[in-house]
């Protein structure tokens, strides 16, 4: 079995505005990999921390909302964003030649697209940002950073990198610009540049946005305790209810992905107390219910979830749960809705080939799974796309090639039940039974509930191979 956790641990220095600087790795022991195509860390969701990245939006906000403004929604900052957008639109209606306000409006549209899971805002964001750049072509760092954030949201990570580098030239000491670059380089698989951008962000502005990104960085390198510590730091700094809910959701997902259902439930519930309408927390609670065998509760949770936020990630998870619950016709309906949503995302300029590959794999369409995975691999090569390639190749019976991608997926040391499951099934396909038993056992040890269907297959395969089922 090839080495799977040989990457060196990452080291990030955290500091606050006080003298209490410390290196998070100084007293902790690195662990092993974590990720999975069904976790929140996939590209099914908008890039990590996007809710905390909007560049320049705060400058749009009046101290109090005007009396004639009706604030819509309470979910994770939607009201604030609505205020920002309406303030900008009113300002531009009076004076259209205003590159700063166009840039701020575009950034706000990017953020509201994420919060409302509505890709229809992407073209509006691009139009506003390009108007800003047309009016101020030189030194317009806010608009350049906004274009980078938009490209990240559309999963155009090469484009995000290019926009981010231009923004950095204009605003070298802006923390949010380095956040754009960290997101882009992480998704492109360039861990060296991603870490450098993140460290600069931490140096410039230690806080919720940088600490949550640091947690992701630690997870990529298998340092789960350090990731938890970073999220605790983020939560301690969170004041806005939306930030509290965001941190609680990440802590809950971290606990779930490492097999701790009780802690996951506690964080999801605490997050909902901060923002009762936050759908990511509802998704977490439904996932915990499914893992505990509370199928009716989980199905009801997912039905309400997709009614309110039918994004590709939620639709896929609901379809998987329906399939596992023996409701194939209902699952097929969710997959049809997934295709409709995918079409809308593509029409808005987004790339969702990775998501399409995962769904094709779920449905047993091996050729389509590989076609979409290859298209994504040609664009970017992070470890989770390597894992998708490995799995798609396995489904097509090309296990020798699949193993090379499984090795690539394991290269950073991410603690991942799904990665180990895929690796184990590939090794079983190659007739390497002892190695397959080790990988499948590790998957179930990390998180016995990583997938209702795949965990069951892992146990069956282990029993057939003579391992512990």
Automatic annotation (TrEMBL):
Pfam families: TPR_8 (PF13181). Residues 19-34 have a biased composition (Basic and acidic residues). SUPFAM superfamilies: TPR-like. InterPro entries: CellSynth/LPSAsmb/PSIAsmb, TPR-like_helical_dom_sf, TPR_rpt. It comes from the Bacteria. Keywords: Membrane, Repeat, TPR repeat, Transmembrane, Transmembrane helix. TPR repeats lie at residues 175-208, 417-450. Residues 19-38 are annotated as: Disordered. The chain crosses the membrane at residues 41-61. PANTHER family: LIPOPOLYSACCHARIDE ASSEMBLY PROTEIN B (PTHR45586:SF1), TPR REPEAT-CONTAINING PROTEIN PA4667 (PTHR45586). This is TPR repeat protein. It comes from Amycolatopsis azurea DSM 43854.
């Amino acid at each position: 079995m090839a080495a799977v956790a040989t990457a060196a641990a990452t080291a990030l220095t955290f500091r606050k505005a006080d003298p209490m600087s410390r290196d998070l790795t100084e007293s902790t022991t690195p662990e092993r990999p974590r990720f999975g195509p069904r976790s929140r860390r996939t590209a099914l969701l908008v890039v990590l921390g996007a809710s905390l990245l909007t560049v320049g939006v705060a400058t749009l906000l009046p101290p109090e909302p005007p009396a004639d403004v009706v604030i819509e929604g309470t979910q994770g900052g939607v009201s604030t964003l609505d205020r920002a957008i309406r303030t900008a639109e009113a300002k531009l209606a009076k004076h259209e030649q205003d590159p700063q306000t166009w840039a701020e409006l575009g950034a706000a549209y990017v953020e509201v697209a994420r919060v409302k899971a509505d890709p229809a805002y992407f073209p509006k964001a691009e139009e506003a940002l390009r108007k800003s750049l047309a009016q101020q072509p030189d030194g317009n760092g806010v608009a350049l950073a906004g274009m980078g954030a938009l490209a990240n949201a559309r999963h155009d990570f090469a484009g995000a990198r290019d926009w981010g580098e231009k923004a950095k030239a204009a605003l070298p000491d802006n923390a949010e610009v380095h956040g754009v670059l960290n997101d882009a380089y992480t998704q492109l698989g360039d861990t060296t540049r991603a870490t450098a951008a993140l460290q600069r962000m931490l140096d410039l502005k230690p806080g919720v946005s940088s600490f949550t990104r640091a947690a992701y960085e630690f997870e990529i390198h298998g340092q789960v305790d350090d990731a938890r510590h970073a999220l605790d730091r983020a939560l301690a700094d969170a004041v806005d209810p939306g930030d509290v809910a965001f941190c609680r959701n990440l802590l809950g997902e971290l606990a779930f992905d490492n097999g701790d259902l009780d802690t996951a439930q506690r964080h999801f519930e605490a997050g909902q107390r901060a923002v009762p309408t936050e759908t990511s927390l509802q998704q977490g609670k439904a996932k915990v219910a499914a893992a505990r065998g509370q199928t009716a509760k989980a199905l009801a949770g997912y039905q309400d979830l997709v009614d309110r936020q039918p994004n590709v990630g939620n639709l896929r998870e609901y379809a998987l749960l329906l399939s596992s619950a023996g409701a194939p016709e209902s699952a097929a309906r969710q997959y049809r809705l997934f295709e409709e949503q995918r079409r809308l995302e593509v029409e808005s300029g987004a790339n969702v080939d990775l998501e399409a590959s995962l769904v094709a794999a779920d449905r047993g369409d091996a050729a389509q799974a590989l076609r979409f995975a290859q298209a994504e691999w040609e664009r970017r090569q992070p470890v989770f796309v390597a894992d998708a390639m490995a799995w798609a190749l396995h489904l097509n019976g090309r296990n020798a090639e699949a193993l090379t991608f499984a090795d690539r997926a394991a290269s950073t040391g991410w603690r991942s039940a799904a990665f180990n499951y895929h690796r184990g099934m590939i090794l079983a396909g190659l007739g390497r039974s002892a190695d397959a038993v080790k990988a499948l056992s590790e998957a179930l040890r990390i998180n016995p509930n990583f997938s209702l269907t795949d965990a069951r297959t892992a146990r069956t395969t282990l029993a057939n191979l003579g391992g512990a089922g």
